[in-house]
Amino acid sequence: MIISAIAAVAENGVIGKDGQLPWSLPDDMKFFQRTTLNHHVISGRKNYEGIPDRFRPLRDRVNLVVTRDQDYKAPGATVCHSLDAALEVARNAQVKEVFIIGGGQLYKEAIDRNLINRLYLTTVHGKPAGDVFFPEIGKGWKEVWSEKHKADERHKYAFTFAVLQK
Ligand SMILES: NC(=O)c1ccc[n+]([C@@H]2O[C@H](COP(=O)([O-])OP(=O)(O)OC[C@H]3O[C@@H](n4cnc5c(N)ncnc54)[C@H](OP(=O)(O)O)[C@@H]3O)[C@@H](O)[C@H]2O)c1
Question: What residues line ligand 1, using a CB cutoff of 6 Å?
Answer without folding.
Answer: 7-8, 15-16, 19-21, 44-47, 50, 66-69, 81-83, 101-106, 109, 132
